[in-house]
Amino acid sequence: MKAFCAFCIVLLVFGSVSEAKFDDFEDEDDIVEYDDNDFAEFEDVVEDSVTESPQRLITTEDDEDETTVELEGQDENQEGDFEDADTQEGDTESEPYDDEEFEGYEDKPDTSSSKNKDPITIVDVPAHLQNSWESYYLEILMVTGLLAYIMNYIIGKNKNSRLAQAWFNTHRELLENNFTLVGDDGTNKEATSTGKLNQENEHIYNLWCSGRVCCEGMLIQLRFLKRQDLLNVLARMMRPVSDQVQIKVTMNDDDMDTYVFAVGTRKALVRLQKEMQDLSEFCSDKPKSGAKYGLPDSLAILSEMGEVTEGMMDTKMVHFLTHYADKIESVHFSDQFSGPKIMQENGFLMKDFISWGKGKQKADKNRARVEENFLKLTHVQRQEAAQSRREEKKRAEKERIMNEEDPEKQRRLEEAALRREQKKLEKKQMKMKQIKVKAM
Amino acid sequence: MPTPEAAAPAAEEARPGFRLAMSTNNMSDPRRPNKVLRYKPPPSECNPALDDPTPDYMNLLGMIFSMCGLMLKLKWCAWVAVYCSFISFANSRSSEDTKQMMSSFMLSISAVVMSYLQNPQPMTPPW
Predict the structure, then answer these.
(1) Which stretches are tagged as biased composition: Basic and acidic residues (chain A) (predicted)?
(2) Looking at the complex, does the CB of residue A205 fall below 8 Å from at least one CB of chain B?
(3) Predicted TM-score (pTM) above 0.90
(4) Residue A336 touches partner B, C-beta closer than 8 Å
(5) Residue of chain A whose Cα is closest to the Cα of B49
(6) Strand-strand pairing, A288-289 and A299-303
(7) How far is residue A315 from each of residues A265, A286, A300, A326, A356, measured CA to CA in Å?
(8) Nearest residue of B to residue A225 by CA position?
(9) Chain-wide mean pLDDT for chain B?
């Protein structure tokens, strides 16, 4: 029992002694161990942290803008080193910074001040360097113009089409009462009326009518204004023009006498006389005023001879021409129509043609005279053509002779050609003698 | 019932009257079905002066301007070529070959596109 108690007392003693030793370790080792060189690198830091001064504000002396530079204590120590190294600099050493570091800095405030004195000019960026939509104004203009042209094309084309259809609907009954065939494009196998206009263009419509007494057929051409072309629309603003209806009636040979006659506005007749061969050939006089025959002053007459005019200008004709004088451009009758094929007529006429004695003889004489002139003109041409044919024949024969391989045959052919030429010469000489004898 | 022999003379007597009626009808009706002639389109070679030369001129101009626009890289030439081809199309005849029109049109469009692909900057006026 006594031994157990002693053991416990010893244990207690040891426990208390050991606690005391640990305490000593904590208190004393700090001081002892932190003096080692392992922690030497932290000495400055520790010292700095111990001796740390508050952050110092340094202002440069030359700076007008009062820039502030905040430095830490570390920088102070470095500057202190510099100060220790450079002892010969004198006053500059006492400054916290080196002037050489700020050599250019003094100039900068000067230049900025000079800049403030010069005015700033803002220059526009050239259009070709910009990327905005406004710089493409010409392209936009072009596209707008194209769109306007397309719109005008559609509108003009539709208007012309409506005008043509309206004209045809108005005159359909009259045409069907006078002709068996109304409307033909020539492509169908059978001659059946199509009952519609042929569109040749966006502004030209044709209608062929046939199957009537006195005439072989009638071609009506509706020549509208070029409403589908914007350029033409603009040109028409300068020079007004109107739509035209051209009617060409092909008469039967038996139903029309031989004469050339035209009536219409003076301007149109002057133009026709220049353009049409038959009018210039047979109606050489200038257009005469139609007032003599009861026509308005606006209309003139071109006629081959007076009898034709008197025969044509009966009351019915005069009444018709007077009534539609402002609508008619020209009416042209001809049996010698050879120039431009389109005859210009306005209105729908039916006339019974009668023959007369002297007038017909005169007309026939005129035609004979014209034929003679024509033959004279072409005589030279025909002579030249005959000459060239003869030369061609001779050349062909010579070639045949040359190509002949057999010399005997060649010789015979040459002889035959010579004989033929001699005969011809003799004949010519005979003829010349006969002519001379006759002349004598 | 009249006998056929009696009917025949009656019919013959009626015929002149019938003929007279027919002739008066013919007199008032100018139509003649037996005199129908077919339409023959006038050949254009006979009237070269009458044919409107506008579509041909515009076609040619369009091609020339297209080539100028492509070769000389002139944008305004290409645009004028487009306008020429449009005018040629508007004035063309229905009998004309559409291939010619389309080729001229496509050439002018290609001239415009190529000009802008080579130089995307906006067009400067020629003056």
Answers:
(1) 105-118, 387-429
(2) no
(3) no
(4) no
(5) A340
(6) antiparallel
(7) 19, 24, 17, 19, 19
(8) B91
(9) 78
Alpha helices in A95-136 (DSSP H): 103-117
Cβ A267 vs Cβ A286: under 8 Å? no
| Per-residue pLDDT band at A11 (split at 50, 70, 90) | low
Instruction: State residue A41's pLDDT score.
Output: 59
For the complex shown, is ipTM > 0.85?
Answer: no
Q: Which residues in chain B touch residue A350, judged by CB atoms under 8 angstroms apart?
A: 30
CA atoms of A231 and B90, how far apart (whole Å): 10
Closest CA of chain A from B72, distance in Å? 19
Scanning A208-267 for CB atoms below 8 A from B yields 208, 210-214, 216-217, 219, 226, 228-229, 231
Residue A366 pairs with which residues in a beta bridge?
A: none
> What token pair was written down for A330?
């020209």
User: Mean per-residue pLDDT for B94-111?
Assistant: 87
Segment A120-129 shows an average pLDDT of 73
CA distance B112 to chain A (A): 11
Q: Is it the case that residue A147 has pLDDT exceeding 60?
A: yes
- Res A86 pLDDT > 60: no
pLDDT per residue over A149-165, tens digit each?
A: 999 999 999 999 999 99
CA distance B100 to B89: 10
- Find the length of chain B: 127
Mean pLDDT taken over chain A? 74
Cα–Cα distance for residue pair A431/A256, rounded to 1 Å: 47
Structure tokens at A84: 């220790």
CA A168 – CA A222 distance, rounded (Å): 10
User: Which is it for the CA torsion A68, A72, A78, A81, positive or negative?
Assistant: positive
The nearest CA of chain B is from the CA of A327 a distance in Å of 23
Tell me the pairing of strands A204-210 and A330-334: unpaired
Contact A304, A359 (CB under 8 A): no
CA-to-CA dists, residue A17 to A4, A5, A13, A14, A422, angstroms:
20, 19, 6, 5, 176
Lowest mean pLDDT among A147-161, A319-333, A343-357, A368-382: A343-357
Q: Any chain B CB within 8 A of the CB of A200?
A: yes
Task: Using alpha carbons, list the distances in angstroms from residue A278 to A251, A260, A284, A295, A307.
Answer: 17, 7, 10, 24, 18
Nearest CA in chain A to B47: A340
- A382 vs A375: CA distance, rounded Å: 9
Q: How far is B55 from chain A (nearest CA, A)?
A: 11
Name the pLDDT band for A65 (thresholds 50, 70, 90).
Answer: very low
Distance from CA of A197 to the nearest CA of B (A): 12
Tokens at B46, concatenated: 């006979």
Count chain A–chain B contacts defined by CB atoms under 8 A.
97
**Helix axis angle, A230-238 to A137-178, nearest 10°:** 80
Write the residue in A135, A142, A181 that is nearest to B79 by C-beta: A142
